[in-house]
Amino acid sequence: MMKIYTRAGDKGRTQIIGHQVVQKDDARVEAYGTTDELNSWVGYIISTLTPQTSSLANELEEIQQLLFDVGNDLANPASESHREYKFDPETAAEATKWLEEKIDAYTNTVPKVKKFILPGGSKVAAALQVARTVTRRSERRIVTLKNQTAINNEVMGFINRLSDYFFAAARYANYLEKHDEVTYRNSKEIFR
């Protein structure tokens, strides 16, 4: 039986694809680790879906599958030429287009707004908004890694569009659950 623990990380190091050992706060580990965190958060969102929002389950699971490929590619040093990226240009283009179609459909369904929307609403919508911010953090970690070494550039467009998807999906979840959104008021409006 294979053990879950190896004790290799007890000194703050981990082994990445290609058997290279790096510090656990290495930019590569931060990038794929934050993407893994996002994937786990999407799994949590699926567990919170209501009968009204259950239509999001399949696409959220598909996003988890895609994030697994993105994480694999981020963990894969470009110098490992014997490895092929899972998130190739064709897959990335199709996945990004699919997200854009979802974004457009949800945006065309929900009421138009002229002000910023505060994150929140229903539990599902609030969780989707958290996913949006974790996606933005993942994107920042990916940019840091990209500034240090070669990466699979296909992940950038997908991750950028994914945060837009989570925003649109959060608004759509509020719409499905008939939950009013709260728009931003600046401090002058609040205290006058």
UniProtKB/TrEMBL annotation:
Catalytic activity, EC: 2.5.1.17
Domain of life according to the entry: Bacteria
BP terms from Gene Ontology: cobalamin biosynthetic process
Assembly behavior: Homotrimer.
UniProt GO MF annotations: ATP binding; corrinoid adenosyltransferase activity
SUPFAM superfamilies, alphabetized: Cobalamin adenosyltransferase-like
Full protein name: Corrinoid adenosyltransferase
Family the entry assigns: Belongs to the Cob(I)alamin adenosyltransferase family.
Pathway: Cofactor biosynthesis; adenosylcobalamin biosynthesis; adenosylcobalamin from cob(II)yrinate a,c-diamide: step 2/7
Catalytic activity: 2 cob(II)yrinate a,c diamide + reduced [electron-transfer flavoprotein] + 2 ATP = 2 adenosylcob(III)yrinate a,c-diamide + 2 triphosphate + oxidized [electron-transfer flavoprotein] + 3 H(+); 2 cob(II)alamin + reduced [electron-transfer flavoprotein] + 2 ATP = 2 adenosylcob(III)alamin + 2 triphosphate + oxidized [electron-transfer flavoprotein] + 3 H(+)
Pfam families membership: Cob_adeno_trans
UniProt KW Transferase keyword: yes
InterPro entries: CblAdoTrfase-like, CblAdoTrfase-like_sf, PduO-typ
Keyword set, alphabetical order: ATP-binding, Cobalamin biosynthesis, Nucleotide-binding, Transferase
Limits of the Cobalamin adenosyltransferase-like domain: 4-173
